[in-house]
Amino acid sequence: MKKKINIKHIVALLSMCILTQACTKLDKNVYSNATYDNFPKTPAQVAAVVAGSYNAMTALGGPGNTFTMNETTTDEMIVPTRGNDWYDSGKWQSYWTHNIRPDDNTINGAWGDLSGGITKCNFVLNLLAGQSNIPPATIAEVKVLRAYYLLMFMDMFGNIPLVTDYNVDPSKVKQTPRADVYAFIESELTANVPLLSTNGQSTDATIYGHINQWGGYMVLAKLYLNAQVYTGTAQWTKAAAAADKVIQSGKYSLQPVMLDNFAVVNDASVENIFVVPFDNTYIHGMTIAWNTLNYNNKLTYNLLGNPNNGWCAPTAFYKSFTDQDARKKMWAIGQQYTSTGDPIPGVVLSPYVLQLSNPADSFKYAGARSIKYYPQTGSGADMSNDGVIFRLADAYLMKAEAEIRAGSPGDALTLVNAIRTRSGVPAWSASNLTLPNLLAERGREMAWEGWRRNDLIRFEVADGIKYYTGPRVPGKTQDASDNHTLILPIPSQQKISNPNLVQNPGYGQ
Amino acid sequence: MQLKNLLKVSCLAIFCFFAVPALAQNKVITGKVTDSHDGSPMPGVSIVAKGSTIGTNTGPDGSFKLSLPATNNTLVVSFIGYAKQEVDITGKTSINIALVGSATALSEVQIVSVGYGSQRRKDVTGAISSISAKDFNQGEATNPLTQLQGKVPGLVITNAGSDPTSTPTVRLRGQTSITGNQNPLVVLDGVLLDDPNQLRNIPPGDIASVDVLKDASAASIYGARGANGVLLVTTKKGREGGVSISYDGYTGIDKQSKYYDLLNRSEYLSAISALPNVTVSTYDKGGNTDWQKAVSRTAYTQSHAVAISGGANGFTYRGSVSYLNQQGVALNNDKNMLGLRFSAEQKALNNKLDINMGITYSRIKQNFNNVNYDWIFNTPPTYPVYNADGSYYSYSLEYNGHNPVQHAVKTLNNSYENLAILYASADYSIIPSLKIGVTGSTNPDHTQNNLFNPSFPTEGTVNNAKSSSYDANSYKGNIHINYDKTFGKHSVSATAVYEYNDYFTNNFTAYGENYLVPENQTDNLGGGNPQKSAITSNKTEYKLISFLARAQYNYDSRFYATASIRRDGSSKFGPNHEWGYFPAMDVAYRLKRDLVKNVEWIDDLKIRAGFGVTGNADAITPYSAIGLYGTGNTYYNPSDNSFPYKPSYQPSQNPNPDLKWERRQGTNVGINFSLFNNRLSGDVDFYNDKTKDLLYLYRVPTPPFLFNTILANVGSLSNKGVDIGLTGQPIIGKSFNWTVSGNITFVKTRITNLAGTYNGFNLAVDQIPLGNALGRGLSATPITYLKPGYAPFVFYLPHYTGVDANGQEQFDGQTVDKYPGGIPPSHYIDPSPKFNYGITNSFNYHNWSFNFFLRGVYGQKAFNNTFLQYETSTRLPSNNTTRAALTNGVKSAPTASDRWLEGASYLRMDNAALGYTFNKIKGINSLRVYVATNNLFVITKYRGLDPEISNAISYNPDPSNATPQNQSYIDNVPYPKTRSFVIGANFSLK
What is the interface pTM, i.e. ipTM, of the complex? Predict the structure, then answer.
C-alpha cells in the first residue's frame, strides 16, 4: 500500500518537475546563516558586525602569538626545554637565541592575528560606508583600532603591506616602507583620536573593552616613543605630549595595589585604559596561567586539569626584584602548596634556569612562574582576568622616559617615584633616574605585559647598548652584527600567499 | 487470471516434458545439489545424462529426479557461475552433489551491474570487478566491507585496529583528492547511499554480490560523485517457488594479538633506582600492574540472521532479521546492531509492469572506546588499578596520566543510530524493447551521541555531559528510459535518466556541566550549572540534479562500443560553475569470437579500452561558494546588563563563486581471459588517471582577503597503476576441488601540481604539511607533506645515523645542536606501498570445505610514533617505557627522524575456515557448521602493534588553524588488532 502511494507521489512530483523550471533549479537555501544581501539591517545587527573589528584583540590581550614573540625573545621570559616538553622543533629555544625561522608557526600566527584584525576593520569600514546614520565616532573608533593593529604589525615585521581598502586587488598588494606606514598611522591617529569618546570606564561602563580617546593617545605615544626605530628620527617631545594627554585627562589614577589591575575581577581598576574582556565561559583566550604554572599547581588553585609547566622568568630577571618590592608577588617560587595550605611534596620551584634544555626531572621545577594575572580558582585553561593593553603606569613611564630623552626631565622623577612607592620600593633620587635604571624599572613594572621587545629595541637603538641583541644566560650569544634580528622575519607561509612580499634582510631569500 | 492460466499451461507442459520420455526409461536417480560454499540448496541446476539430451533441472530445494537409460552412468551437472561436474552414478539411486563456484570471469550469463542498468559479463566494456557471496571473506564478518577486503584488484580496504565501532577505509585506485572524502560511492540495489559508511548498516549476510566500477569510463555514469569509483551492492532477493527459511549465525572470541614490550614492576624499579637523585619510594605505589592487560579483555561476538524468502505468481519477496553483538577488546567498547530488511518484487500485466520495493531499517548502538592508550605508557607499573578497598586508585601524572581503567569504565560515550533506506520503483514495458520507469528513495538517518565525563577524584574536574543529535535525510527520484533492441547481428541499447536529489542535514547539541546527580548522565542536561550550558544547532540543504544518457552497441558479440554522458548540477558549486559534463567512451573487442576463434585452449578473450571523466565534490560543503554571516566570537557589551556577552556576527569564509568539483579523467586498457577449459581466468587492467582542480584551502593574504584561506580548485595529481586478478582451478574432481585466486594491485600516485589561480590571483604552495609527529615537546613538527613530484604523505625527516659517545642521537653524522637553529637536514621518503595483494585457496573434499585467505602489502613504511614518544629512557622515572629503551643506548630526548620510519610490509593470514556440510538430516534442507579464524598470524618486521595502520583521517581543513590533520602512515598508540576464533552454523528449511 505504502509502496503505491510512494510511487504515485514520486511520479506526480517528477512529472510536475519535468514540466516546470523546478527540475533544473539549483537554489541555495540557507538556514543557519545570514547572507550578504539580507544582513545586517537593524542597528543591533550592524553593531554585531562592527564588534568583529575587536575579534583579533582576544589574540592580543592574552598570551597569543604576538605576545609570545614580544616576550620570549627578551630578557624577561624564557621557555626552556624540560625533558622533551616544550622542545617543539626547537622553536622556543630559537626565540630565546634569536634564531627565529621564517617557517615558524607562531610567527605566522602573529602575522595572521594582526593582519586579520586589519582586514576585519577594513571590512567593517567598507560596510559602514554603505550605512546611513553611523556616528563619526564609530568610524573613528574602528580606524584608531586599525592603527593600533598596524602599529603592532609594523613594529614586528618592519615593511608591511599597508592595505586600508577592503576592495583592493590582492595581486597588487606589496609592502610599504616602515616610515610610510609610520606616517599613515600618525595621520590616522591625529585625525581620528580627537573624535573618540573622552569618557573613562569609571563613569561610562559602555566604554569598557573599547578604545576611547585616551587609549588612542596611548597608541600615539607608543608610535612616537619608537619613532627613531621606525623612521630614524626620534619624536621624544611628541611622545611625552601624547602620554601627558592621558595623564592629564583625569580619568585614571594609579591603582593602590599594582597587581589588582590583573586580578580575576579587574573591571573596577581605576588604572586600566584599554582592556580586552575575557571570561572563562564566554570569551576565551586568557590562558597565561596555563602556560606558566607547574602541573601540580592544579592543587594550589583547584584547577580543572594540569597546567603546562612552561614559561618562566630567566634567573637574572627574577633577581631584579627586591624582596620589599610588592611586585615580586607576581612570581610563584619555592615550595608550592595545595589550596588548603599543605605543601605539595617535591614541588619546589627554583629561580634557576641555567640551561636552555635539561632532561633531568628536577628541571621541570626550574624558573619562577608568573601569577601576575592571578589564576582563577576552579577554572580551566581559560580564565576571566581581562587582558590589559594600556594602563596609566605605562603612560607615566613613557612620559618620564621621553622627557629624559628630550633633555627636559620635568616631572619624570615624580612619575617614576609614584610607581615605585606604590609597590613599596624606595623613591629614587634624581641621580638614580638613569636610562638603564628606567629600563629595569619598566621591566619590573611592565613584566609579562607584552611590551618588552618593543622597549629593549628602543633602548638599544637610542642608547647603543645591546639590550636586545646582546648575549644572555642561558645560552644566548650576541646576535649577528647586521642587527637583522631587530625585525622579525616575514613568515614563509605569507610569502607563499603573497609572492610580492620581500623577506626582511638576514633571513634568507 | 491470465497469470494463473499461464501457470497452469506451464505446469502441464513441464509435466508432459517429464512424463513422455519416462516411458522408455529403466533407471531412476534422485539427488540434491548444494553450493559447496555454504551448503545451501541450488535450484535450477541443469542435470543431463552424459552424451544424451536427457536431463532435468533441480527444484526449489535443490533436489532432482531423473530417469535415464540403465547404461548411462554419468551425469553432467552445470550451473552458471559454477564449475561443471561429471558425476559417476554407477550403482547408485541417489546422490548428493556439491557444486563449486567458479571464478570464470567471462561467464556467459553472469549479470553485472553497471549503474542505471546491467550487462552480461561478456558484454562489459569498462573495468568492472565483481565479487559474489561465495567469494566473501569468512569468519567475523561484521561489516560488508570486511568481506571484500583483499578480494578485488585495485580496491584497497584498510582496517586499522579492531575497534568494533570503527569503519574500514576504502581506496579505489589510489588517492583521489587532498581534502575530500575518498570512499567510493555506494549504490545499494540502485539507491545511492547518502554516506558510503552506511554500508555498515547492511547485514553482511544479506549481500549477494558487489560490482566495483573501477575506471573513469565505468564510474563516469555517476558524474560528479564518481571519482572515487563506485561499489554497486546487490542484496539477496526472493525466488519463486515455495518458501525458504535460513539461519546463519556464529559466535566468536577475540583477543588482543600483540602487546608492547613494557617494563614490568621489578624491571621498572631497578631501572629507576639506577638513576641519580631518584627517591624510588616516590614512584612505588605498591602496585604490580600490566596496564596493557588491565585495559584489555577477551571479547565475545555473536551474530544471528534469519531470512525468509519465496514467491509465486509473479510476486517474490525476501525478509531478514539480523542481530550482531560485537565486543571490543577495550573495556566498555562494543557495537550492537539490529537489522530488519524486506524486499519484494511484483510482476504484473503480462510481465510488462515490474514493481520493486525495499526497506532496510537498522539500529546500531555503540559504546566508543574510552581507553586512553597513552596512559598505559605514562603510568608506572608500580601503580595499582584498585585500592585495597576495591575502589579505583586515582592519580594525576604531570600533563597526561590518569587511571585508564577507571576512565574507560566510568565514562559514557555512546551513540544510537537509526537508519532507514526506503526505495520503490516501477518499470513498464511500452513495447518489448522500450521500458520506462521511475524510482524514488529516501534515506533518513538519525544518530544521537551521548557523552558523560564524570568528575574523578584527584583530577579536580567537574562532570560534564553532552548530547548531540544528527539527522540526515534525502529525497531522491529518477525517471529512466531503457531501450534494448537486436537487429540481426547488431544490438543496441540506450538508457536516459533524469535524476533529482535533495539532501538535508540537521544538527543539534546540548552541553552542560557540574551535575549534582551524576547517575543521570546525559538524561538531565538542564540540571547542571546554567551558566555553562551551551546549545548549538545547524541545518543545511543542497541539491544535485542530473541528466544522463548512455548508448551501447555490439556487433555479433564481437565488437562493443559504449558512450555515455552525464550532466550534473549542484547547488554546492559556485554560481559560475553550477553545471558540469562528464563524458565517457569505451570500446571492446572479443577476440574469441574472431581472431582466436579456433584456438582451443582459449575459452574467451576480450580486450577493452576506455576513457572517462568523473568528479568529486565532497570537499565542498553546501555553502562553501557563497559569502555568509554566521555567529562569531562572543563580545562583551557592558551596556546591556541582561545580556552582556553577545555573539558577534561575522563573515564565515572567503566566498569563491568559481568553486566546482574536482575533475578526474582516466584511460583504462584491459583484457579479460578464460583459458584451458575455464580452468584459468583473469583480468588485467592498466590505467592512467589525472585529477585536476583539486580542492584545497589555499593560503591567501589578509588583507585584502577576509580570511587567510580560500577553498579553491587548484592543483592536480596522477594515479597510474595495474590491477591483476587471476583465478585458477588446478583440481576439479568428483570429490576434491581446489580453487586458487589471487590479485595484485600496483598504484603509483604523484602530486603533480599545487598551483593555479583564483580570480586572477596566483595561488600556490610549494608543499602542504599534512601529518604531525605527536607527543610531548613534539608539536609543530610536520613530518608528512603533499609535494609536487612526490607521492601523497611523503615523509620529510632527518636521517638518523646512530648515537655519539654520550648517547645523543645523530642525524647525518651530527647531533642536533651542531646544526644552525638546531635543525638537521631532512630528506623526502616515500612511504607508499609498492603493491597490495591477496591470495585465496579453497579446497572441497566430499562434504568438507577448507579455505584460507592471505593478504599483504609490500613496500609500505609506517612512522612508529608510539615508539618515538615512548621508547626512550628519558621517560624514567615519572613514566614507563619499553625494554628496548633501556638497552638501545639512546640518552637524548625524542626527535622525529627516519629512525622511527619502519618497514611495514606484511603478510597476514586474514582468515581461514573449515566447514562440514550435512545434507541428509531429516527436516533440514542443509546444515553447514564451520570454524574460522581471523588474523591467525601476521608476518612483518614492523615493531608496532600491527602494520595495518589507519589512513582514514581525511584532511579536515580549519580556516583558523594551520595545524595539519591527516595522520596517514603515522602510527600513534592505536587501538589493538585482535585475533579471533569463530564457530558458526547455517542451515535452511523448506
Answer: 0.87
